[in-house]
Amino acid sequence: MSVKPTEIVRKLKPYIPGEQPRGGKFIKLNTNENPYPAAPDVLIALHQAPFSQLRLYPDPLCMDLRRLLAVKHNAKVSEIFIGNGSDEVLRLLFQAYLEPSETLAMVNPTYSLYPVIAAQIGAKVEVFELGKNGELPPFPDLSAFKVFVIANPNPPYGTFYQPEILERLIASAPGTLFIIDEAYVDFADGDCLALARQYPNAAITRTFSKSSSLAGARLGYALGGEDIINNLYKLKDSYNVDYMTQVMGCAAIRAHSYYKETANHIKDDRAFLTEELRALGFKVYDSQGNFIFAENGDGKSLYEKLKKKKILVRFWDAPRLNVGVRITIGTHEELLALINAIKE
């Protein structure tokens, strides 16, 4: 007889990541990975790192990384937390500020990990439906909720919400923690970093997975007031970011020119793919991420058709989303292959 897990685990519906095919050669446009390799300087730093260091534990506070990020964002080192991917950062923020009796507020559709983390804590979730083009709905008094989380740009549509709109929400509920997930911000026309500096109830999360091409390394961070950051350090694992990842992260920050260039390529190809699919009759949302959401009325059939042609896109069998697919912006050649496959 097996040992019975907790009630939370028994009821938990886990997060389901995008497919990671092991066999066959696929064009992979389903998990918002960067189509370009990590910067050459990152690989050089990795090869030049003293491998004798691997016998030692890594810096538990990631001080080199935090100093570089502090300079990049004109912040204090004490206002930055480094995590094992932004998913860990989000989990620790929820854990630090959500009691089981309290409620997370979020929009739908969005990153589907948010309600999973809340459920792991035992917290409740209140969902507000976005408008038909991804716009924010009218919200009630948000002070009724302990935490409000929003991705900006927001997947799967890619909508970017102007900082002044989010600032009004933050200012309206000083007792609510507002988490702005900026995983895709380097493909957008703005950011909300100023809000995390100005308001003690706001925090920004970011990742190295998307624009920095380090999804396999698992590296993310939070920027917020010192009280918020100190609470995350109370909760984190002792050595949550390994030595080699810290080396790669430092090199990636220094390689900002390379990553700006690749982000610009992705933005250009995002505009190209949007125009091409709209010409084919798709509804394509205005996206500021490294992806688009394209609706043709039957997302499942399109997903299956493309998979047979060795092209993976993301399909959700869920209301609002089952009418289309999310497509990661790959290389221009990959997008041409996608368009040709759709036309066939």
What report would you give on this structure?
The chain is an alpha/beta fold and 344 residues long. The chain folds into 2 domains: 7-37 and 257-343, Aspartate Aminotransferase, domain 1 (Alpha-Beta Complex), CATH 3.90.1150; 42-255, Aspartate Aminotransferase, domain 2 (3-Layer(aba) Sandwich), CATH 3.40.640. It has 12 helices and 12 strands. The protein has a 7-stranded mixed beta sheet, with helices on both faces. A 3-stranded antiparallel beta sheet has the order 9-10-12. A two-stranded parallel sheet has the order 1-11. Helix 2 runs antiparallel to helix 9 (243-254) and helix 4 packs across helix 5. The chain is globular, with a radius of gyration of 20 Å. The mean pLDDT is 97.
CATH class category label of the largest domain: Alpha Beta
CATH architecture level-2 label of the largest domain: 3-Layer(aba) Sandwich
- Taking Cα atoms only, what radius of gyration do you get, to the nearest Å? 20 Å
Structural class of the secondary structure composition?
Answer: alpha/beta
Do you know the CATH topology of the largest domain?
Aspartate Aminotransferase, domain 2
Quote the average pLDDT.
97
Q: In DSSP terms, counting alpha (H) and pi (I) runs of 4 or more, how many helices?
A: 12
H/E order of the elements?
Answer: HEHHEHEHEEHEHEEHHHEEHEEH
First CA to last CA: what distance? Answer: 54 Å
Strand content: 15-25%
